[in-house]
Specification:
The chain has helices at about 125-130, 170-175, 210-215; strands spanning about 45-55, 70-80, 80-90, 100-105, 140-145, 160-165, 180-185, 195-200, 205, 250, 255-265, 290, 300-305, 320-325, 330. The N and C termini lie far apart (about 55 Å). The chain is globular. Helix content is about 5%, strand content about 30%. It contains three helices and 15 strands. A six-stranded antiparallel barrel has the order 1-2-12-11-8-13. The longest helix has 9 residues, at about 170-175. It has about 325 residues and is mainly beta. The protein has a domain at about 45-200 and about 250-325: Translation factors (Elongation Factor Tu (Ef-tu), domain 3, Beta Barrel), CATH 2.40.30.
Length: about 325
């Protein structure tokens, strides 16, 4: 910034601080929105498959192209049926943070759940769990998604705590009949509604400030390095502030994208598969969801679809799809 005649905006974004690696492939979700309708699961685990082009009639209120056919990028997410393997009760501690008080695990789970740490079929005292219901503030379902049911090679299931709408008593009555059963995507989400997508971005490792923060490369006649920050601060005080772009971890961060519209929910995603399958994925062998826009992460990366935390002020019905394209290949889809 030295020798600049006028002020200028900073080079590079310092948002999402700290830029550290995610702990796991599956993101940690602390917030589940309150839902006023009947008790239901507020999220499911899926796997990113690839991108398509959808043509549909724009029906967004106030849009300049409303009523006309538009083409947009869409992402296909394979969502095999999730297993409801247990439930847990939460109660705030002295600092207000929710803490687990009781947990139960369903009986008669498939044998591939034996490889999960901390999941033992039939664990927990059901009678004590029911007695603690009035004192709990939240009930969450413990669901598991099996990547092999989506056509992937990984055998170890992904386990996630999913919020359940309603009071703890209503949520427990709802989950009692689902223990050990599968929940399909068509029973949780519907075409036209908005969802939040939570996942882990593609990792790039340790990178410099040009790739990590997007700063400008210095002129050719720079005396020292060119791909570095021109000035990192004054001599006093003798430290570098956190507002100065620095090299470090780039990618593999937990991110949330709000209000992605569901364009289609398919009980069988095989019609969406292009010739030869999706690049770096496989042939779709499970139910699938088509989301408008992009989704973080590479193919095969697990993502969480959640009821919207900040839904828009308007509601839309099922979109009117005219065609779905992969490259120049037209894919016929009967359900929308």
């Amino acid at each position: 910034m030295g020798h600049r005649k006028w002020s200028a905006p900073r080079r590079g974004s310092l948002a999402y601080s700290p830029r550290r690696r995610a702990k796991d492939l599956l993101p940690t979700i602390d917030y589940w929105p309150k839902w006023s309708d009947k008790p239901k699961l507020l999220g499911l685990v899926g796997y990113k498959a690839g991108s398509l082009t959808v043509r549909y009639v724009d029906d967004v209120p106030g849009s300049l192209t409303k009523g006309t056919e538009v083409a947009c990028q869409a992402t296909v997410v394979a969502v095999p049926a999730n297993y409801v393997i247990g439930a847990k009760l939460l109660k705030p501690d002295s600092s207000g943070e929710p803490q687990e008080t009781q947990r139960i695990i369903a009986r008669g789970l498939p044998p591939f759940f034996d490889r999960l740490r901390g999941v033992r079929a039939g664990a927990g005292d059901v009678s004590q769990f029911e007695r603690d219901l009035p004192r709990a503030t939240e009930l969450r379902a413990i669901v598991a998604s099996v990547p092999k049911e989506a056509g992937l090679e990984q055998k170890r299931p992904f386990v996630l705590e999913v919020g359940v709408s309603g009071s703890p008593e209503e949520a427990y009555r709802f989950l009692k009949d689902l223990m050990g059963q599968k929940v399909g995507v068509e029973s949780v989400f519907s075409p036209g509604q908005f969802v939040d997508v939570l996942g882990v971005t593609k990792g790039h490792g340790f990178t410099g400030v040009v790739a990590r923060h997007g700063i400008k490369v210095l002129p050719r006649k720079q005396r020292k390095t060119r791909r570095a920050v021109g000035a990192i601060g004054g001599r006093k005080p003798t430290y570098v502030t956190r507002f100065v772009p620095r090299a470090g971890q780039y990618g593999f961060h937990e991110r949330t994208e709000f209000n992605k519209r569901i364009m289609a929910v398919l009980p069988d995603g095989s019609p969406l598969t292009p010739k030869g399958g999706f690049p770096h994925f496989t042939v779709l062998r499970s139910p699938a969801v088509v989301l408008l826009g992009s989704v973080m992460g590479p193919p095969k990366r697990p993502v969480v679809l959640r009821e919207p935390a900040k839904p828009p002020s308007y509601r839309l019905g099922a979109p009117k799809l005219t065609s779905i394209l992969f490259s120049d290949q037209l894919i016929e889809v009967t359900a929308a």
